[in-house]
Amino acid sequence: MTIEFQVEGMSCQHCVAAVTNAIHEHDEAAQVQIDLASGRVAVESAQPTDTLKAAIDEAGYTVTSVTSVTSGSTR
């Protein structure tokens, strides 16, 4: 399942690496895509949403919204 997080506080590539590493601590196989300009973090993972949100929060960033998108969906 793909989960999209809207994240505040990311401003540079260090932030991207910190969020990516925080997610990988909970799921090494997770696919993470971050759009720094919009603050969107898309994660393909089998981990619960709450676990991934907590990882981002613990890295020092603020999750303002969460959207679950099933794989293969179109927008």
From TrEMBL:
The lineage of its organism: Bacteria, Pseudomonadati, Pseudomonadota, Betaproteobacteria, Burkholderiales. Keywords: Metal-binding. Residues 1-64 form the HMA domain. One of its GO terms (molecular function) is metal ion binding. This is Copper chaperone. It comes from the Bacteria. Pfam families: HMA.
